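Q: Joint fold for the lines below.
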Amino acid sequence: MSAPIAATPSDIVREAAALRRSLDAGFREEVVTSLYGEVERLTRRAVQDSGSGPLELDQRIDRIVTSRLLGLPLMLVILAVIFWLTIVGANVPSQMLASAFFWFEDLAAGWFTQLGVPWWITGFVWHGVYRGLAWVISVMLPPMAIFFPLFTILEDLGYLPRVAFNLDYLFKRAGAHGKQALSMAMGFGCNAAGVIATRVIDSPRERLVAILTNNFVPCNGRFPTLIMLATVFVAASFPPAVASLVAAGSVVAIVLVGVLFTLVVSWVLSRTVLRGEASAFTLELPPYRRPAMARILYTSLIDRTLFVLWRAMVTAAPAGAVIWLLANISPGGVSLATRTATFLDPLGWAMGLDGVILLAYIIAIPANEIVVPTMLMVYMTQGRMLEIESMDALRTLLVDQHGWTLLTAVNLMLFSLLHNPCATTIITIYKETLSVRWTTIGALMPLALGFIVTMLTAAMARAWFGF
Amino acid sequence: MSVEHNCETCPVHAEMAPLGATVEAFDRVVALAGNPNTGKSTLFNALTGLRQHTGNWPGKTVTRAEGAFQFAGLRYKLVDLPGTYSLLSTSDDEEVARNFLLFGRPDCTVVVVDASALERNLYLVLQVLEITDRVVVAVNLMDEAKRRGITVDTRSLSRDLGVPAIPIVARTGDNMMALVGEVAAVAAGETVTQPLRSKGTPAFEHAVTTLVPMIEAAAPGIPNARWIAIRLLDGDVPVEEALASGRLAELVARQQAPDARFSRKIALQGAQ
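A: Joint structure:
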């Protein structure tokens, strides 16, 4: 063979094309066939299968876990148990953290006063920034430290692919990818993480559907709001023994509404702007494995819990400062917070909510977890975020003093499902799609849906039930 | 074949240390390939420790994880490739894995296979062997296979594939030292492999040997001209374009460049 001197790349491609024509038309098939033959030969020589193993155990479990009849109910039960454990388990540590943090706040504010620091610096630092941080840590850390490890255990066991398998036909009928079930599940932890998790979907169309609808499942930052509403308005009318069960049940109900919206919006998207067929994919159901506990604790506590908590803290500190400023700057004797809330009141009324709730959602764009504290702070007009000692006190505050009804609670639950994603999620959507257009749609579509749905339920409740 | 390994009598045991995310200075690069669900991530964690350096592959939304370990005085950077069933089709995952094997010049590639589903896993092994000859096959999940009454003769497999095949249980760390030792030997060139490669028809082999010197002349220092030649004969459009636009050299450089878009956020996805 003579070595060709300085062939240009296009020469090589041309040469390759010419050589290809000189080969048998079937050479590609030959290569593939010989590959398969080779693999079969190697396997025959190296593997001895006595066929007696307990493979059947995995299959027996799968027959139940992925059965048409039991698959979905079992999934809901597992979800309910996880929420119940999270609600029950987080209660006491949350309160302990809160009282410790707020005890220190009073102490530190006292020192500042003794040192002669001006009142507005003390207020800004301790009752604004610090209190925002304290609230977020005590409300979020315990539930996350329980929820994430439990979720990771399911992941490690190999249960999540079964969830995708169970939900696959629903998503397929909605024109979406079956693996969207996985990114949706990740969204329960954090929507930004859920948006990143859509990377498992190969088709760009289906990936966009999954990204745009991820926000319809409530994330960890929104669960405290849902849990509070479930506890105060739903569970309050049940005996204490079953109250936590009822609370968990109503959170599951909200989750189901979220899944319903995910499916309906996916269906609409894949019949309008993102038209196309659902693509087929192979879903391997891996064997069940014993979870590696050390790794679970590490990934769920360090990678997930601390990461989400850090993000919340970074946004809560400035938000706490903004809240304090809004509540304490009072041109003409009326605080900025009250003024804005009054301005937003008509829109809030039309949505079955009120101006204060809308203001809280605007301040909470950086992080959903500060919605409730902001709301309560403006209601109390105490000039700072506060900790309500008991759920009864909270109920009294909302119902008796601020005219909350069942409609307010239901619509707030709906609005916390259906509103714009938090700032981190919006940034993540942009990073993943690199498109201003899709980011805008991803941010505004859920918000528009939230306006429409709450206005409809408010109008219906007022027309038919006289709210 | 037993996977039991006596650590106390193993002279190299003390020399192995995970280095976690310290991937800045290293002597050797080891790539980790394998099908999904073969315990690739478990092996990665077992070798490097729990901390890892995560980011994106350049220009792709595919997660890239890197870690490091030290063995016999040398530092090894371990690059976790996306889990794939083949290197032939055009998904992002497969392109990333294939490009790294082609242009990232790993000193050794570990292909993790599931002992209880060896046949399905061997397609990837053979495709990797087409690209590089510095390969060690890690036959993982030996315990699970045994439980199912499946035994894998790794010595026969080794002989047939022409590269070392080591039985391991990544979850418990069984036989890890043997694997690492073999990786070190292959990376150093002490173990000479003779990878099994498909021989085509004489006409096909002639076509390949015509193209190889042309490719080597056009892109000096290209790691695997034979593989490029086969892909060109197959009419692989991305490879044609890469060659025609002079991007081949660029690819070589890009695979070795540090990833600028490093982000902790990616770690949220967990191990997969």
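Q: Anything notable?
A: Residues 68-276+315-465 of chain A form one domain. Chain A touches chain B through 69 residues (CB under 8 Å).
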